[in-house]
# Entry
Amino acid sequence: MSEKILVTGAGGQIGTELVTKLVEKYGVDQVISSDLRISEGSQNTIQLDVTNKENLEAVCLEYGISQIYHLAAILSAKGEENPLWAWQVNMGSLFNVFETARKLNLTRIFYPSSIAVFGLEAPKKLTPQHAVLIPESIYGISKAAGENLANYYFKRYGLDVRSVRYPGLIGYKSLPGGGTTDYAVEIYHKAVLHEPFECYLQSDAALPMMYMEDALNATLQIMEVDSSRLSLRTGYNIAGCSFDPAEITESVRKYYPDFEVTYKPDFRQKIAESWPASIDDSIARNDWGWTPHYGLEEMTAEMINNLRKKYSGKN
Ligand code: NAD
Ligand code: AKB
# Structure
């Protein structure tokens, strides 16, 4: 039987691109996109506040949903502006998804975690999968709790939840929604638009990052792999590349030598300081064959090439 998929938070940075991939794979009638607000007339797109359990359950029944990709969340920077709201959305919606999935016997759930689960006590470089998790941000706390909840639902109820800890994601098709790593998308837009860029992180704030294509591949791959290959039901570390604002600036200046960058660190610098600089993803590589394909230079080439087309109206 073909899967019927519900994507929550589908209008965000990842959902915008993931839905296209899911439609390519499963067919347009098999994928229902949902978000708080939707644009008029979008096909198979519905309005759904996933903190409302009754509505979520009703949608799953109405469309015969078998899998949920639960992307809806409040990210790290927005979360610090209103921690209670971030907790209520991130944890409330996750409980709703897991309870609905358990009750309706859904076959598989995707739950995106984040490198934000780590805190100051974890090793900064090549942070291992099982490093201590004492996150500093409310977002990281919700993701660490969410991973444990995923593991609990798997062990207690046999719910097939799969999760990766995405690094900061960078793509040209969609804009990020309020994270600490958003600067690494904006910097490319500014360069292509010939505008100066003011960076809210310090020049040496190195973070794990990943090109969107790699992140989408990881997502589809972990959701397809046979259950027996997954030794973890928390979130798998996955690594793409790692760089700081000075390094990405250097990479961009190969295309725009006069590109101007200034630094004015704000509250997001503290969040960045509490996160790893790079990630050890050997367990994901061994368990399900995860391999990234984009380093910083390949990603810069793709971003600049595609944003140039976009801003000249060809994309
Ligand atoms: P985003 O902020 O771009 O999109 C989130 C979407 O969720 C938004 O469209 C928003 O309207 C929606 N939303 C918020 N509250 C909702 C609610 N109550 N009901 C329904 N929808 C709601 O986020 P994203 O970057 O696309 O991230 C998707 C997921 O991946 C999140 O769980 C995030 O924590 C995780 N993640 C993202 C990154 C990244 O770099 N983008 C990195 C690590 C983890
Ligand atoms: C954020 O910066 O909040 C996200 C993430 C790494 O989870 N991009």
